[in-house]
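Researcher: For the annotation table, I need structure tokens for DivIVA domain-containing protein. Please keep the output clean. Sequence:
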Amino acid sequence: MTTQQPRFERVADHAWGYDPAQVDDFLDRVRALRAAEDGSQEYRETAGDGVPDADGVRHVGSRQIRERVFDRVRGGYDPAVVDPHLDELEDAIFAEEQRAFVAEHGVARWDEHVELLGELLLGRLNRPRTQRFRRPATHRTPGYAVADVDVLCDRLVEQLRSAPEVDPRMLREAVFRSAQGQRCYEEQQVDAFLDRAVEFVLALRTRA
């Protein structure tokens, strides 16, 4: 009996990494669902009759890759190795989505979509510092430190204005301190904004 080799390097036994079973299952599902969308035999052999994954997902897109979160376990997969792989996978799927959209709706409709997304993001970014996002519903609910989020927003504005291309890693790898009350923004709203910001940055690449 042979033992399956791990997909990624692991952290030390005492350190915390991504749950290998969850990572492997997710990537297997991505492979199967993408094969299903191509109508290939591989899907019928690996995913059965269209059975969704544990989250009920029958389609995998760039957003599903971007939003996936894994539990942490000791001795798990090294996030520093897994995350770049997921980023590359998200980039590839996003490019496929863009090509499919253009093939169905045309370049003009895609450009309109990108411009609208940019207007929505800039509307948020152009708000005064400390007022860009909601506060949590209660003062005891933790959120992201306002100062940290505003620094990232300022960096994003500066790069959008001056840099030839914004590196999505700036958004994907953002880490904010925890805070409470008026010193924090609501986590869900900030996360949703970052998700859209990554989508916009990737969309700008397709127009270059």
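Researcher: And a one-line annotation?
Model: Residues 79-105 form the longest helix (27 residues).
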